[in-house]
Amino acid sequence: LLLLVEPLSAEVSRQLTAQLLHLGASGVSAATLHISSPGYGTDAQGAQQGGDLEWLPVAALLLQHRAAAAAAAAAGSSSSRRQQQQQQQLTVTTIALGHAGGPAALLLACGAAGRRFATRNT
Prior knowledge:
Blueprint: E1 2-4, H1 10-25, E2 30-37, H2 56-74, H3 79-88, E3 91-100, H4 103-109, E4 116-118
Parallel strand pairs: 1-2, 2-3, 3-4
C-alpha cells in the first residue's frame, strides 16, 4: 500500500519512486496507490511550491509497469510462460480518495488499465 496524502514535492516524489522501485525489484505482483493530494502545495503567501516536473519520475515508473504488462499480454508466448511473466510484473492500482488535483490526478491516470478508481465526489 502506497500513500500520497500530501502535496507533491521533491521529497515526496523521491519516496514514492523508491517505494515503487523496491516493490518492482522484490517481486511483488500488485500494489495500491491511494491518492488524496491537492497536487502542488502553497506557501504562506499562497505561492505554488514545488517544481513543475517533480512528479514525473513516479509517473514514468507507473507507465513503465503498464507497458511491461501490455507487452507480456501481447506476446505470443505459451500460456504458462505468459502467466509467469505476468506474476513477475508489478500491477499498480490507483485510487483517488478525496482530492486529486493537478499532477496527483495525472498519477491517478497512470495506474494499470482497468485498475484506476476514484471515490464519489473526488
